Amino acid sequence: MFFDRATNFKGVGIGEVLISESGQYYAASTKIRFSCTNNMAEYEACILGIRMAVNMDIKELLVIGDSDLLIHQVQEEWSTKTAQILLYLHCVKELCRKFIKIELKHIPRFPKDFADALATLPSMIQHLEKNYIDPTKVGIRDQHAYCFHMNKEPYGKPWYHDIKKFLPTQEYPKNATNGQKRALGRLTNHFFLNSEVLYRRTQI
């Protein structure tokens, strides 16, 4: 589980992401609307992430964060006399007891882009009236949007049909307008054929 907080002039946000052994991501982000320090925000993020794992009935958990203070305090390597931090610390320890195995690691420069983005999003929202916003889906797209739109043309052929036909013959479709011919010519520059398989050229 990765966790992080983001603080800026608009507010404070926290983000947590659980990653299963199979690579499935479970993410959450929260805007904090009460006054808190950076350390308190780190604890908020850590606690919410661990609670996510508890609610999912996870029994073994690796918690990774870049807050050395939090990690060392939970591991009882560093002490604190701050009343609010003591309350957070007690909460984390109580949650840790719900696992068969839980380990907390401090990694200063871990790959936390996802958790950082989740924390930054709510921190930028100034006037969040609702206590909850429906989940936002984050997708990964390997093709241009028009490829999905043109996946099947009205006559049942795939979007790349004309490209694949034009590359070996350099022949335009019948009844193609001059504009369509120019567009097809430009588009085919980004593809090549190899054993009847169409590949998209990439720039390195």
From TrEMBL:
It holds the Pfam family RVT_3. InterPro entries: RNaseH-like_sf, RNaseH_domain, RNaseH_sf. Coiled coil: none annotated. Residues 13-120 form the RNase H type-1 domain. This is RNase H type-1 domain-containing protein. SUPFAM superfamilies: Ribonuclease H-like. CDD domains: RNase_HI_like (cd09279). GO terms for molecular function: nucleic acid binding; RNA-DNA hybrid ribonuclease activity. The lineage of its organism: Eukaryota, Viridiplantae, Streptophyta, Embryophyta, Tracheophyta. Gene3D superfamilies: Ribonuclease H-like superfamily/Ribonuclease H (3.30.420.10).
